[in-house]
Specification:
Blueprint: H1 7-10, E1 12-13, E2 20-21, H2 26-35, H3 44-50, H4 69-77, E3 80-85, H5 89-108, E4 114-123, H6 127-139, E5 149-150, H7 153-161, H8 172-189, H9 193-200
Parallel strand pairs: 3-4, 4-5
Antiparallel strand pairs: 1-2
Helix pairs in contact: 3-4, 5-6
Length: about 210
């Protein structure tokens, strides 16, 4: 896509109905190297996705934690950015640099780009993690979403098995983890949380659910 192929030619069918995936591979790095000598290189992904916007309800672009050319392409194409971080010194040190990077992309490539907020991933609920998260919330210019995503093995297990947390059998922690993600989605896309969870987990009682 970065070198001119159409979305339709490179997308593959996902494991869930209605999901299409455009996977990266070793060619992504080669494409980035080739683009360094091209004009308009920061807008290649935006141009490639422009004709496909009407085919999807939402497009998620997953990026590595670096501001290389493919990440700039993603931010130039996106409407909103969501920052995922883990509790630790690196997250604190990178927060101010990340803000400068977003400001730079917004100024030169995408003036409509906004940051939706920060999701803390891999929280162990230790005193150290609580301290790091407190410092992060104080230093971050963006909203830090709660609840934090816990460091639970069921999340990794479901991902490696290619199953959604709502599909994971017999583990209430999978349902609890799904509820955390659903709360974040409710904040981002303004879905009604309780009807959504009752649909996904009809056997569970959500009558006392707090928003």
């Amino acid at each position: 896509m970065l070198l001119g192929e159409r979305v339709h030619d490179v997308e593959v069918e996902g494991i869930w109905e209605g999901l299409a995936v455009l996977p990266g591979n070793s060619n992504t790095t080669k494409a980035i190297q080739q683009l360094h000598t091209e004009h308009g290189r920061e807008y290649r992904l935006k141009e490639a996705l422009a004709d496909s916007m009407g085919r999807y309800d939402i497009i998620l672009i997953d990026c590595a934690p670096s501001l290389e050319l493919h990440t700039i392409n993603a931010l130039a194409a996106a409407h909103r950015a969501l920052v995922i971080c883990q509790p630790g010194k690196f997250s604190l040190d990178g927060s101010s640099q990340l803000q400068l990077s977003f400001d730079s992309v917004s100024r030169y490539y995408n003036p409509l780009l906004t940051v939706a907020g920060v999701i803390v991933n891999g929280n162990r609920n230790t005193l150290t993690h609580k301290a790091w998260i407190g410092d992060l919330a104080e230093a971050s210019p963006w909203r830090v979403f709660t609840p934090y995503v816990p460091y639970w093995s069921v999340i990794q297990d479901a991902m490696e098995a290619g199953l959604g947390l709502d599909e994971w059998p017999g583990d209430d922690k999978a349902r609890q983890a799904y509820e955390i993600y659903a709360r974040h989605l409710a904040h981002l896309d303004e879905i009604e949380l309780r009807p959504h969870l009752e649909k996904m987990f009809p056997k569970h009682d959500y009558s006392t659910l707090e928003s």
